[in-house]
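Thread amino acids onto this structure.
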């Protein structure tokens, strides 16, 4: 009986260590239609989540087109996990000069419970995806609540005809 208890307790310790060593699982980051896959960018969902926000913000990102006043929310149901929005920010930033084309509510990225989409104020418009990322960053910087939920919209840097919206995908 003593051997059984000893073996059982050792197996329990080994099993517990296995749980501690398990890699963290993140919600999948899904590029919008027509945008490069994560494999094409040589990146993974985990990398996009683990990148976090840049250490130094581009101060030019604050100088956005005045035709659109950034907003938070606008409804409680729009709020989602800021970590999901940040992973989409990192995806869009990695796209660099890749063109993000928006018509009406064109999805650029889905991650976990979040959607980041672009809307053209007049028909259709195109912007660099890293400039779309700057608008997403504005939302993260200005609209994140203490409970780490976030939602909002801002004009894309350099293109006041496109608005980037970061919200709960069920909203």
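Threaded sequence (171 positions):
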């Amino acid at each position: 009986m003593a051997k059984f208890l000893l073996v059982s307790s050792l197996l329990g310790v080994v099993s517990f260590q296995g749980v501690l060593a398990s890699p963290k699982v993140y919600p999948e980051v899904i590029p919008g239609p027509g945008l490069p896959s994560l494999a094409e960018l040589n990146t993974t969902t985990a990398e996009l989540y683990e990148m976090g926000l840049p250490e130094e913000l581009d101060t030019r990102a604050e100088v956005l087109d005045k035709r659109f006043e950034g907003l938070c929310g606008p409804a409680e149901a729009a709020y989602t996990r800021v970590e999901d929005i940040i992973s989409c920010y990192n995806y869009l930033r990695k796209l660099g000069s890749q063109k993000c084309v928006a018509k009406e509510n064109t999805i650029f990225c889905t991650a976990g419970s979040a959607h980041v989409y672009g809307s053209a104020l007049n028909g259709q418009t195109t912007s660099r995806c890293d400039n779309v990322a700057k608008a997403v960053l504005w939302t993260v910087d200005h609209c994140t609540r203490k409970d780490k939920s976030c939602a909002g919209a801002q004009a894309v840097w350099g293109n006041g005809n496109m608005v980037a919206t970061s919200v709960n995908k069920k909203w």
